[in-house]
């Protein structure tokens, strides 16, 4: 186990950049995951990190020590103050790992997908990815204006969902939608079909937009169906992450009722 003490160390500066700068993540094709839960989920997916970081105080934690050993690379120890500088979390758990970003998921091979259009809030993006993984989505496609899926805030909110999904970040969401071979369903606040009235047992690509502006016209024109969740009177809309969970659950319910396979 090596010990690094200075912010000027090139490795330390690089890890700080991966945690705080999306451009560095894109250029390096790497990200920093933080905490025992995320590292365990990453290891359970069969992947191995490029580096493991442990805070000085974290060395005494049995769970952290076991995960650091299981991960493979000899862990690097950082003094607590330096670890806090590297990490994004306000109160970091004393364990982090550098991971290689996977290649972009091939949209043309997806069978159940979510397409996010301008969903800027990191918590919403992470929550959608978490629900997507829970309900058997195989591919998540993020268009321009979405929060970086590999940012620490999105990673924390998704709680390991990233490692059960294929993820693609695209400049032209409409073009990506055109590649999807299944039925494309656009979620709208009002005026669409109720989810239960649609056949969702087939291959589905959900198109979800930010709460304020919704789905862009270019993406919406790619949809063959529009869906709206019935709400109580005087309620305008749902949070996009909540709406996504409801729609994904409805598909799972229909599959279970029909005996069809996802």
Give a quick rundown of the structure:
By secondary structure, the protein is an alpha/beta fold.
Task: Characterize the largest beta sheet: strand count, sense, and whether it forms a barrel.
Answer: 6 strands, parallel
Can you name the CATH architecture of the largest domain? 3-Layer(aba) Sandwich
What is the helix content? 25-40%
Q: Segments where pLDDT lies below 50 for 5+ residues?
A: none
Strand content range = 15-25%
**Number of distinct helices:** 10
Instruction: Tell me the domain tally.
Output: 2
Which strands sit side by side, in order, in the main sheet?
8-7-6-10-9-11
| Rg (CA only) | 20 Å
**CATH homologous superfamily classification of the largest domain:** SPOUT methyltransferase, trefoil knot domain
Level-1 CATH class name of the largest domain? Alpha Beta
Structural class: alpha/beta
- Mean pLDDT across all amino acids: 95
| Extended strand count | 11
